[in-house]
Amino acid sequence: MTIEIPSREEIGKILKNAKRIAVVGLSADPDRTSYMVSKAMQDAGYEIIPVNPNADEVLGVKAVASLKDIEGHVDIVDIFRRSEYLPEIAKEFDQIDADVFWAQLGVANEEAYDFLKEKGYTVIMDRCIKVEHAMTK
Fold first, then answer.
1. Three-state DSSP state, 123
2. How far apart are alpha carbons 119 and 14 in whole angstroms?
C-alpha cells in the first residue's frame, strides 16, 4: 500500500480538535528540531507530553519512558525518530488510547502505515506538525 496522507483541510480539522500531543523522541536540547517544534506547539496552547526514556523533564513537563506510561487519552502521537523505528512505535501506539499517528518531516515507513491503516487509524507521515499548524490556522 502506498502512503496517503489526509488533505490539508482534514489535517486542519485534526489540529483544531486536538489538545494533547505526545512527542516521541522529544529532546531536552533546545537546539534540536523536536524541542523547537514542540515548544511552538506548546506555545500555541497544546499540552505536550514528552516521551523520552533518557529525559526527566522537557519543556517544564515530566517525561515518560514510553507511550504506555501516559495516563488518559492522547489526540496526536508525534514522532521524532528515524523511519526504521516506526513499526515498533506503531505497535505501541495501537496499545494506548490515541487517535492520530503523526511522523515528522522526512519520517515515513510503509510497514507501520499499513499496520495502522488496517486498524482504522488516521496516519500522517512526512509532515511537520508546526508547519501544518501554521498553514491551517
1. strand
2. 18
Three cell numbers, residue 96: 494506548
Q: Are 116 and 6 in contact (CB under 8 A)?
A: no
Which SS3 state, helix, strand or coil, does residue 10 take? helix
Span 28-78, pLDDT tens digits: 999 999 999 999 999 999 999 999 999 999 999 999 999 999 999 999 999
Kind and range of the H or E run holding 130: helix 129-135
Nearest to 98 by CA among 79, 126, 85: 79
Is 70 within 8 Å of 64 (Cβ atoms)?
A: yes
Q: What is the DSSP string of 48-106?
A: EEEE-TT-SEETTEE-BSSGGG--S-EEEEEE-S-GGGHHHHHHHHTTSSEEEEEEPTT
